Amino acid sequence: MTSMEKITQFREERNWRQFHNEKDLALSISLEAAELLELFQWKTSEEARKNPERLKEELADVLIYSYMMADNLGFDIDEIIAEKLVKNAVKYPVEKSKDSKQKYNELSQ
């Protein structure tokens, strides 16, 4: 069973789809991302990584809500990620972006 199938089964068993409109899912993604970010607040990355269980839980929440939103919109997760990676490859060509943290519009022309 795929992750999407497990998520769908979980929410269908509870009849929660009725509460999962796109606006509320977008809000939930943002809120869960903030909870993930909070684990890093006032810490170095190394310090935050000392609590892997909480990191996994918060990251899973972000992903679950993201998967539900994609499902609601009829988006295939693998397809939309592949499409975005193609766009990113154009914006960040290897020869200009390798070893650089600059944003695409700041890369040397």
TrEMBL record:
<dbReference type="InterPro" id="IPR025984">
    <property type="entry name" value="DCTPP"/>
</dbReference>
<dbReference type="Pfam" id="PF12643">
    <property type="entry name" value="MazG-like"/>
</dbReference>
<protein>
    <submittedName>
        <fullName>Nucleotide pyrophosphohydrolase</fullName>
    </submittedName>
</protein>
<dbReference type="InterPro" id="IPR052555">
    <property type="entry name" value="dCTP_Pyrophosphatase"/>
</dbReference>
